[in-house]
Amino acid sequence: RYLIYCDPLPNNAYVACLEIDDVNASDAGKYKISAKNKLGESNAHIQLNLDNQEQGSSGRPTFTQAPQVRMFEESVLLECRCTAEPVPSFTWTLDGKPITMGARYKQGILSEGNTHTIFLEIAQLTAKDSGAYKVTAKNVKGDGVANIQLNIEGIDFKLPEGIAPSFLNKPSIKQDAKTATVQIDIIADPSPSLHWTKDGKELL
Length: 204
Hints:
Blueprint: E1 2-9, E2 13-21, E3 29-37, E4 40-48, E5 62-63, E6 68-71, E7 75-83, E8 89-94, E9 97-98, E10 105-112, E11 115-123, E12 131-139, E13 142-150, E14 152-153, E15 156-157, E16 163-167, E17 172-175, E18 179-189, E19 193-198, E20 201-202
Antiparallel strand pairs: 1-2, 2-18, 3-4, 3-19, 5-7, 6-7, 7-11, 8-9, 8-12, 10-11, 12-13, 14-15, 16-18, 17-18, 19-20
GO molecular function: axon guidance receptor activity
Protein name: Ig-like domain-containing protein
Pfam families: I-set (PF07679)
């Protein structure tokens, strides 16, 4: 009943699809897609309501492009863009540990309508600032996560080759009499492994 596939697009992009045949009321629920490669992982959540045409995760924080890293002489700026309504709160971690804001770390958010740019500025860089950064954006509709891997060696900045998975848009849901199709675009390099779950159970 489940057809899962991922088709390549230009510029390290992919379109991930989940097709549900003979769709019925029991297929309603919370779906999640996880995209993972050696540089990181990203997740998207989809609420499938078969008795409602208003599908998708409207309002939930959704990261819409790959995180950006801007290098300066002695600092770095990590930027992530997401859509969310209302404006989300957000937290940053480094290798799983919360980052305490202060003299070296400054965070902020710039909002234009439902589009928000979340940033973290790190001053007085050292090799200890290397690691896996994660930003979590939350509002009353849910949460979203973006990952950035930062490698710093001495005074030379070396970014990892490739792109951590990031979702480029909100999931779209198409439904006809017998089939429901969930589709979402991903950017990643190398190509990501994908896992779909429904209400916490993996779909095979």
